[in-house]
Amino acid sequence: MNLKNITAAAISLMLLASSCSTPKNIAYMQNARFGETEAIINLNEIKVQPHDQISIVVSCKEPELAQLFNLVQANKRVGQTGQGGAQSQGNVSAYTVDNYGDINFPVLGDIHVGGLTRQQICEKIEKALISGKWVSDPVVSVEFANLHYSVVGEVKTPGTYAISNDKVTLFEAISNAGDLTEFGEREIMVIREKDGNREKYLVDLRDDNLFQSPAYYVQQNDIIYVQPNKAVARKAEDNPNNLKSISMWISIASFLTTIAVLIFK
After folding, report:
1. Per-residue pLDDT tens over the stretch 65-93
2. Which residues pair with 140 in a beta bridge?
3. For a 10 Å CB count at each end of the chain, is N or C smaller?
4. Which segments of 110-208 does DSSP mark as H helices, in order?
């Protein structure tokens, strides 16, 4: 065997070792069914929980009457002007839901909002205002103030992201984090705390059945964890004698090349 053949064999060993650590089956929804209509299940809109913060604004034809039901936190004293010369009206303050799922609403008193969606809260307050003959034509809007979820692990931009919509899918959450890196496992973990309990879900992004998972629709305070794949785990191993290490294969190839040079020189 000449030097050229030995060198080629060494390079082949290096390539083979590298290919062993290449992630496989990284495409999402590999068994997707096309052209079929599928019923949406586990549609889980965001529902308010204790310690959530929400802002509520009441509007009607008589602005002075509506002000009675709006919790306003003034940034400046009435009469002061801002940089643009306009008079400050203050910002709407947020309600913090207590341990029982209630908020203390102006005039109406305690209102139970725990377990309700934004739309349901709007309808409940509008009904209370009309039935109590406080406002005949109320328009109530509810916005989330502090709701969020976290994405950690092998994604491009891990961090905490705000929830502003009534529903957020797992794909939207991952997209906001810049998608998975090439080193991320496609079976991800979702950690959820609800009603004093903690639940963990495994969702395989390669499987089209992921839409059936209770974790497909993200909830407030969810933690989405993308663990590193086996290739990254091998690189992190400290044992220099591990034959699965790429660096070990490179050292072997270098050694064989050196021996060949000495023999055939």
Report:
1. 999 999 875 433 334 444 443 333 446 67
2. 58
3. C
4. 118-131, 170-176
